[in-house]
């Protein structure tokens, strides 16, 4: 019978080769840019719509609900479309009431449909006229101290989306 020995050098070399392959692109598919993004880039599923300046701008179709993950995005909505905004917060770090700016007559506030937990920010809207509306809210980054001597911060988390009604 032949005795087999385990070689740590072979295991280390195999591990390095395996790790070197992680993250590399394979196959004949799309080539990536080589950078990593914290948030996926939205794909455009509708034709660009003219912006207020007359140039073509892109926006994603608006689904039934906006969340904190939609921060910074621009959405398109047809007249008579409706959606709601749900921002999940906590009692210690609550979202402020959602504010609308711009062509505010384009969106009409409607019944949200159910009660929100403490700290959540929520609103519901129906598109009633053409226009561009910016929705926004903020909340503290840190909870308020509950006892003397605890650390506090003045940081604020911002949320903002643009809705183009056409």
TrEMBL record:
Source domain of life: Bacteria
Signal peptide, first to last residue: 1-26
Keyword vocabulary terms for this entry: Signal
Chain residue ranges for the region called Disordered: 29-56
Low complexity bias: start-end ranges: 33-56
Signal listed as a keyword: yes
Protein name (database record): Lipoprotein
Organism (species): Streptomyces hyaluromycini
